[in-house]
Amino acid sequence: MSGDHLGRVGGGGGDGFPLVNDYAALLTHSDHGGFHGMDDSLPATPFFSFSDYLQGGLGVADHHYGQLVVDASANTDVFGAAASGSGAAGKLSGGTGGTTPVGTPNSSVSSSSTEAAGEEKEEVAAAAVAKEEEDGSADKSSKKVNKAAAARKKGEQKRQREPRFAFMTKSEVDHLEDGYRWRKYGQKAVKNSPYPRSYYRCTTQKCSVKKRVERSFQDPSVVITTYEGQHTHQSPATIRGSSHVLAPPPAMQSSFLHQELLMQQLHGHHVLNNNQQQQQQQVMRAMNPNMYLPSPFLLLQQQQQQQQQLHEFPDYGLLQDIVPSYNTDQP
DNA sequence: CGTTTTTGACCGGCGC
DNA sequence: GCGCCGGTCAAAAACG
């Protein structure tokens, strides 16, 4: 039946997240289920679009959301898992200006990260990005990439699935509101986790965006959301009501908050290389196609080369694979 | 009554 | 070639 999910460990082959060109980040969501009704925990701050963010400069540490943004340490933990040595002391910082409904002790994050550094890392690394390239270089000689890939590449490219964008959010609600409507089409047990993974698909007909949501088994407070593809339409939440970019409905605000946080997290992660930073920028640029897409998508489908660095910075590898394929950026 | 969720079965890819 | 595993399908149930 369905009771076999937390059984096996290290089944072997499965990495848990066979992502291809993915990008991940951790967000710390201060409020829990506020979305679904009361969102009092969310500050009534004006929201920024990505473009604003970008144009406004990348050093927006003083952002309004600053108070919502939280411990970069936790971020680091989850993000880099192993890289966080001092993260243990991090802890929730800003705590929502007054409200910290989430009784989630970050300590669990740090501590668990320490203990389960390996596993957590695995999970993160996977969600983070992963690589699976199939170039002829395949010198990694890892377990993956072999005859199958070789054969495939030989004749034709494997149907590259759409780029994915994964990010982690500290939230108690599994399915975070992002302004779009989703229909759940499946649920599967995650290998090393007691928590299942849910598969959603955008209900808009022409839209084929999918997303999966799962919870970190060591940090139940952390939800990993992975988007795949990009919406071919606007968010219903957007259409409904205002055509302006301002004053989005609560749900959207939270959605944007996520993204804002995401970026801050990224930037707050001052441990990146130049390349990585550049890529971050690219990613962000990609993230806002024309105006503001309430959801983080876009991305890439190129990778390669930087693999070398991947070896040296496995923890930050996620940033490596990110290469926006969209040149919607302006001159 | 229409839509979404639930859940076991099924399928393809990949490792061994 | 076999078995494991992630991802998807689809029928039935649940929900509003």
From TrEMBL:
Region (Disordered): 85-162
Alphabetical UniProt keywords: DNA-binding, Nucleus, Transcription, Transcription regulation
GO molecular function: DNA-binding transcription factor activity; sequence-specific DNA binding
Compositionally skewed regions (Basic and acidic residues) per UniProt: 153-162
Record bears the keyword Transcription regulation: yes
Compositional bias of kind Low complexity: 101-116
Protein name in the entry: WRKY transcription factor 71
Species per Swiss-Prot/TrEMBL record: Iris pallida (Sweet iris)
